[in-house]
Design goal:
The complex is a heterotrimer of chains A (376), B (542) and C (403).
Chain A lengths: L8 H12 L3 H13 L3 H25 L5 H9 L1 H33 L6 H16 L3 H25 L17 H14 L6 H4 L9 H31 L6 H7 L12 H31 L5 H15 L5 H34 L18
Chain B lengths: L28 H11 L6 E8 L5 E8 L5 H18 L4 H6 L1 H9 L5 E4 L2 H10 L2 E5 L5 E4 L29 H11 L5 E8 L5 E8 L5 H12 L9 H8 L11 E3 L2 H9 L3 E5 L5 E4 L17 H30 L7 H10 L7 H21 L2 H22 L4 H15 L4 H39 L1 E2 L2 E2 L69
Antiparallel strand pairs in B: 1-2, 2-4, 3-5, 4-5, 6-7, 7-9, 8-10, 9-10, 11-12
Helix pairs in contact in B: 6-9, 10-14, 10-15, 12-13, 12-14, 12-15
Chain C lengths: L1 H21 L10 E3 L2 E6 L4 H12 L15 E8 L16 E8 L2 H11 L3 E3 L5 E5 H5 L1 H13 L8 E6 L2 H6 L8 H11 L10 H11 L2 E8 L4 E10 L2 E6 L1 H11 L5 E7 L2 E18 L5 E13 L13 H30 L6 H8 L1 H7 L3 H7 L1 E12 L5
Parallel strand pairs in C: 1-5, 2-6, 6-7, 7-8, 13-14
Antiparallel strand pairs in C: 2-3, 3-4, 8-9, 9-10, 11-12, 12-13
């Protein structure tokens, strides 16, 4: 990031919320029910708390190394080659995430909106539109988040309230009937729904008050968690634990069943799809931006814009790799387990441990501090 | 009808070609006159009046002025008569007389409001062409520049483009001085500064920068001055030229400089910490910086009560959205997603569209194009004919097209609603932007349906988020930390709640209404509320 | 880097524009769509004799080949769409038919639809389907029925909020009749369902039925009977193990709904002293209690609380309706009648058919997980042995405007 505007706490919150709510929320009710039956929503709650704790850890790192992203203090803490390796790994992780988001988005759009448009075209258009945003700076993304987040939090839940008569909350019983072993196993999958919070490692220095990061993250993750829980509860109430495991995207199917009789837009799923396009766009763009940020910091450039277009092509080709939707979700699962958990959970904790052990980094920064203004 | 004006002949533009004035005045009257007659050869509207002053007609004077630019009366009465007649009648010591005619004339004889002396003839020509008169005295190397401006003027009329139901009907005029006066009438504060410069190499248009010194954001002010001085153009014929030179992104469809004909709007903007740029020869005054919600505000929002004002404002936003997206959404729904509308409506639309030869988006483009043409035609044609053509033409053509089976009636309704919504926008410039963006959305919707519409809106949103106007984000009150400013965006909260100035614009002198001001008492010092200097004024408005 | 990059970007944009102009893969004008309002699926009986006959008929013809009788075809699929041209009054030449029903055969629903696509001048659109009808013979064929259900569920256009009906006879006939009342047939059905005035039909939508079938393999599907020029929706079909088991009559369906806690409105007629007194229900609540005793027997207590008003008696003077004693009598009588009906249907469905259509198993699973643990593996056998006790408490609140 070159010398520019800082983002405010609110903007960070908005970025995080729009980042996390992406493609995961569509399959979430099904996956948590598969793991934990009617207690799926508890899984979401516990997973959320874990993630909040980790992000507080990350924010501590950001305070210890002011004006540095994980690219810089990772190298400091873990020795330069290892640091660069991790950063590259992180980079690949984000790029893959982008490819997945783009492809899943395209599949769902094809399924529900545009039957005959070729997948290539949908992926290409959303990537190009995303590239347009990524060429700008984080403050722009923050502003977009601020504009969008109220809409896509409030509107779907307004619609959901129209479905309350159809909800049978007894579907959530029996309460706490799942065995603890199953529950713990399920935690692995649920944390991957929260992936994206680790971008705090990169964005914290851009805040105008980095010390507020912990609070902002907690609020943002709290909002996401509540949204997830409400979605899960609503879906399970409407479909029941058996049916919901058959539906690939229960969230969508749920909105499909909601009708507001007499209104102009009787079938609300059109509006929901429109809002969801925006949500996924933001998720995609922010991950893209994170990847570009890492690369930008690794090669120490001023303006990251020129890297965007080549990366767009790379992501496009990656997105076209899976042959069909079954393979796609298989890859996505593998990605979550082998890349998501390490980079999302383990990596930050390792770095933090390293920081504590090596007693580096203070409130005022250490000698290796590289200022943001450098190079601008 | 004339009105006295005077330009402070301060720093001219430091342009390479016009660096320093070069031509000094001569001593001899004839040589000076010769200079002028040579430079202004074939300018038949320049008048050279030579006359002699003194009891024995011993002193040669000459008066040069441009016919049409001066106040004849003043020249005749105050200059010519005063010098030629009244001096003779004055009982003066002959000794005094012979000493310094020039100083005498300058200090005592010329009884006009403004006089200056000038050494350089080329600068004198500039003043001459601006409407001043030049008084040359034989034997002196200086020229007296007499402020005598007076030219035909439209006067103060109701602004054409921004009519209001309630509010003053003063509108700016084409003379700079009238405009600055209208501003001063509203802000009688010595902190209201009006700085003048001249822009345009050949037009030498007077441009005034107006601001409140203790409210304005200095950074913005400096930026404005910097950008203005960097304008290097032949002629600045209208404030639009200036606008295009100083805006941040020339490629953006959104206006980053606001223009208005209304003095009350300018006064309000200056009170918020913005800068006004007044240009001679045009009633349109520029206001910077601008954010998007300012383009949706209208002056009378503040004169009516808050409830009505909020309602109308919300309607304005809604109609903006409609005017932008309705045709695109219609195309998306009918061509791509008929499942989204109620069944009866879908069947009805399908029914009315049977037999129509064009696909929905061609229909939309045809109708929109026709509407744009009608709109332009309506503007060009004079007076009542123009307006009638617009309305009647639209209706008749629409009806005929439906009957001929070329377009479906729903399409006509969609286009009509879109057009009406666009008229509800209070700022012409943003209306134009939306007209253009509407076609963009139609194209995308025709290609990708609802997905295309969302992509188009996203692209526009990204663009808006990255747009800045003189350092202030374009979407300012809706984003960023100034949430209390939201009270003036979608709705308008009661005046008693608007007690702080918009932080994004100034950050200084935040308090504008004291609590208790509503009942006429002047509130006591409440200390540091908001902003870094919480100092307010001692008294609320009168 | 900016110069060539800007050029590259502009090329990409230009290509994108060209794309947009030539693309529009999904664009189908709304008047070129065939809005299917109702879908009917029947089982197709293949017969060799018919095939031979058809082959001979088509020997000498060069015309359009109808889908042949062949082993592949197992379903008869019919759709109906409204004639939208009629909505445009002036200037068009349109046939007078209010709707267009079409029918074809095919190996499965999807292929049959594709078949129909070839015969129509519009693209078939299922987004506004209001009802799906299944023929009787299809219901009795387990495998075919399950295939069809899967197709219905998998399709994203067919919503889950639509009506799902079992037709006594051939479903196709329901679409081809010319009803007197409402010309566009899909909405005819939808409007009947919207009335919901009587409990005599089972008002559950496709989504709920699918869910129930998934969980227990059994459900109730509302029944449609085809008349000369009208359709009657009353009664239900009992599905067990994904297959038709029996038909329930109107009154039985109503009682079954009561046990489910639905069908709040309806009229129950009770004989009191030779007079059939009509009782109009306005509210119904149900609560279920499950207990298990030490011998492993499960007891289910269903108690219904009913509210309503008496709508008629007899025009005479000597007995007043507005009399507490009379009302108590009436309440008892009505309660007795309703209990009898409910018990009757409960016995039939539980004991005779052995199908859990009320989600009793689900109830136990949710509220009594300990009991569920024991019975869940052989719920099918346990269910018929459950002792059910139904009690109905009736509250007559009003009696009309005369005494």
């Amino acid at each position: 990031m070159n010398s520019q505007e800082k983002i405010t706490s609110n903007q960070l919150m908005a970025i995080m919320i729009s980042l996390l709510i992406g493609i995961g929320i569509l399959t979430l009710p099904r996956t948590v029910t598969e793991e934990a039956g009617p207690d799926g929503w508890l899984l979401v709650l516990v997973g959320g708390i874990i993630v909040i704790i980790i992000s507080v850890v990350i924010s501590r790192l950001g305070i210890m190394f002011p004006n540095q992203t994980v690219v810089e203090y990772g190298s400091t803490l873990l020795s330069k080659p290892l640091g660069i390796l991790f950063s590259l790994g992180f980079f690949v992780y984000f790029v893959l995430f982008c490819a997945f988001e783009a492809r899943v988005f395209s599949e769902i759009t094809k399924q529900f909106l545009l039957d005959r448009t070729p997948t290539e075209v949908i992926v290409a258009t959303i990537l190009l539109t995303s590239a347009y945003l990524v060429r700008k700076d984080l403050a722009t993304i923050g502003r977009m988040g601020e504009m969008i987040v109220p809409v896509f939090i409030i509107v779907p839940f307004l619609f959901l309230s129209a479905a309350i008569p159809d909800m049978d909350l007894t579907n959530l019983l029996p309460f706490m009937g799942t065995s603890p072993v199953r529950f713990l196993a399920g935690l692995g999958t649920i944390v991957t729904s929260y992936l994206g919070f680790e971008t705090l490692l990169l964005f914290q220095p851009a805040m105008n008050r980095p010390q507020d990061a912990a609070k902002a993250m907690s609020v943002a993750l709290g909002v996401v968690m509540v949204s997830y829980i409400l979605t899960v509860i609503a879906s399970v109430s409407i479909f029941g634990v058996y049916e919901i495991q058959r539906l690939i995207w229960p969230t969508f199917t749920m909105f499909r069943t909601i009708k507001i009789p007499g209104a102009f837009l009787e079938n609300v799923h059109g509006v929901i799809m429109a809002i969801w396009v925006v949500t996924v766009y933001m998720t995609l763009s922010i991950f893209f931006f994170a990847a570009v940020t890492i690369m930008g910091r690794l090669v120490k450039v001023r303006d990251h814009a020129f890297m965007v277009l080549p990366l767009t092509f790379i992501i496009y080709f990656l997105a076209m790799v899976p042959d069909n939707i079954a393979v796609l979700y298989e890859y996505l699962d593998m990605f979550s387990i082998y890349l998501g958990v390490p980079f999302g959970l383990i990596f930050p904790l390792v770095i933090y441990a390293a920081a504590i052990i090596r007693k580096m980094g203070t409130e005022r920064g250490n000698k290796d501090e590289r200022s943001l203004e450098e190079g601008s | 009808m004339g009105f006295l004006g005077r330009t402070m002949n301060k720093k001219d533009n430091k342009k390479p070609e016009q660096d320093q004035p070069r031509d000094r005045a001569f001593s001899s009257l004839d040589k000076n006159l010769g200079y002028f007659k040579d430079k202004l050869k074939d300018c038949d509207d320049v008048v050279y009046r030579e006359f002699r002053v003194g009891s024995k007609q011993q002193y040669g004077f000459a008066l040069i002025f441009v016919d049409g630019l001066i106040d004849r009366n003043m020249i005749n009465e105050e200059v010519l008569k005063s010098l030629m007649l009244d001096i003779r009648r004055a009982n003066m010591n002959p000794g005094v007389f012979s000493r310094n005619i020039f100083t005498l004339a300058f200090n005592g004889a010329v009884t006009t409001g403004e006089v200056e002396e000038e050494e350089y003839l080329d600068k004198a020509i500039v003043s001459l062409l601006a409407g001043d008169s030049l008084l040359l005295i034989d034997g002196y190397k200086k020229v007296i520049v007499i402020g005598s401006k007076g030219w035909p003027n439209r006067g103060v009329q109701e602004p054409q483009t921004e009519a209001v139901i309630r509010g003053s009907r003063d509108g700016f005029s084409e003379t700079l001085r009238i405009n600055t006066a209208l501003l001063r009438r509203r802000l009688r504060d010595p902190e209201l500064k009006i700085k003048q410069i001249r822009l345009g190499v050949r037009s030498k248009t007077d441009v005034a920068i107006a601001y409140m010194d203790n409210i304005v954001d200095k950074k913005v002010l400096d930026e404005v001055e910097k950008r203005l001085r960097s304008i290097n153009m032949d002629g600045i014929l209208e404030s639009g030229y200036i606008e295009q030179f100083i805006e941040d992104s020339w490629y953006s469809p959104f206006p980053q400089v606001q223009n208005t004909e209304r003095p009350d709007r300018v006064a309000a903007a200056i009170l918020e910490g913005r800068v006004a740029i007044i240009t001679d020869n045009t009633p349109f005054v520029l206001l910077v910086p601008v954010t998007i919600n300012m383009l949706f505000q209208s002056a009378e929002d503040y004169y009516e009560r808050w409830f009505i004002a909020s309602f109308i404002r919300i309607m304005r936003y809604v109609s903006a959205f409609i005017s932008l997206t309705l045709p695109a959404i219609y195309i998306a729904i009918t061509s791509y997603h008929p499942g989204l509308i109620p069944t009866d409506l879908a069947l009805y639309i399908a029914g009315t569209r049977t037999g129509v030869p064009f696909p929905a988006f061609i229909e939309a483009v045809i109708m929109e194009m026709t509407l744009e043409l009608l709109r332009e035609a309506g503007i060009r044609l004079p007076g009542p004919i123009g307006q009638t053509i617009g309305i009647v033409g639209g209706l008749v053509i629409g009806q005929a097209a439906v009957q001929a089976g070329l377009v479906s009636p729903i399409m006509v309704i969609v286009v009509a609603v879109t057009a009406i919504s666009s008229f509800a926008l209070s700022s012409y410039s943003i209306g134009i932007s939306f007209r253009f963006l509407r076609f963009f959305l139609i194209a995308l919707s025709a290609a990708f349906g609802l997905f295309g519409v969302m992509l188009g809106l996203l692209i526009m949103l990204v663009h808006l988020c990255s747009l800045k106007s003189f350092g202030i984000p374009y979407l300012a009150p809706l984003v960023g930390n100034a949430y209390y400013e939201m009270g003036d965006s979608f709705i308008r909260v009661p005046l008693i709640a608007m007690h702080r100035r918009p932080k994004t614009l100034s950050g200084r002198n935040m308090i504008r209404i004291r609590p208790g001001g509503k009942n006429g008492q002047s509130g006591s010092e409440t200390g540091n509320i908001g902003g870094k200097d919480g100092r307010g004024y001692e008294k609320t408005g009168e | 880097m900016k110069g060539p990059l800007k050029k590259a970007v502009s090329y990409v944009l230009a290509a994108a524009l060209v794309f947009c102009a030539t693309g529009c893969w999904d664009r189908v004008e709304i008047n070129n769509r065939y809005f299917v309002l109702a879908l009917a699926v029947d089982k197709f009986e293949y017969s060799e004799a018919e095939e031979k006959k058809q082959e001979e008929e088509q020997q000498g013809q060069n015309g359009v080949q109808q889908p042949a009788e062949s082993r592949r075809n197992r379903l008869v699929v019919s759709i109906v769409a409204p004639n939208v041209g009629l909505l445009k009054s002036e200037g068009t030449i349109v046939t007078e038919e209010m709707k267009f029903p079409l029918s074809t055969v095919g190996p499965n629903t999807q292929e049959a639809i594709t078949q129909l696509d070839t015969r129509l001048n519009g693209r078939i659109f299922f987004g506004h389907v209001k009802a799906v009808l299944i023929g009787e013979r299809l219901l009795k064929d387990r495998k075919l029925f399950m295939e069809t259900m899967d197709e219905l569920e998998r399709d994203h256009q067919i919503g889950r909020n639509i009506d799902f009906l079992a037709v006594k006879g051939e479903a196709k006939d329901a679409l081809f009749i010319k009803p007197l009342v409402e010309p566009i047939i899909g909405t005819y059905l939808e409007q009947i369902f919207q009335q919901r005035r009587t409990g005599r039909f089972h008002g559950r939508k496709l989504g709920e039925i699918i869910t129930t079938i998934h969980e227990t393999g059994g459900a109730l599907i509302p029944r449609l009977t085809v008349g000369e020029n009208e359709l009657k929706v009353a009664g239900a079909c009992v599905i067990k193990n994904h297959k038709h088991r029996a038909w329930l009559g109107e009154l039985e369906t109503r009682a079954a709904q009561w046990i489910d806690g639905m069908a709040e409105e309806g009229t129950v007629s009770v004989e009191m002293q030779g007079i059939w007194v009509p009782f109009e229900m306005t509210g119904l609540e149900r609560s279920m209690e499950v207990t298990k005793d030490d011998d492993g027997n499960i007891y289910l207590d269903i108690s219904l609380t009913v509210e309503g008003e008496i709508a008629g008696y007899i025009y005479q003077i000597h007995r007043e309706v507005m009399d507490e004693k009379f009302i108590k009598e009436a309440q008892t009588a009505i309660g007795r009648e309703m209990t009898a009906e409910c018990t009757g249907v409960m016995d039939k469905v539980k004991n005779e058919f052995g199908v859990d259509i009320w989600g009793i198993g689900a109830h136990i699973r949710k509220f009594h997980p300990e009991i569920w643990r024991d019975v869940k593996d052989n719920w099918e056998e346990v269910f018929p042995d459950i002792e059910v006790n139904i009690s109905v408490l009736v509250n007559v609140r009003r009696i009309g405007i005369i005494k």
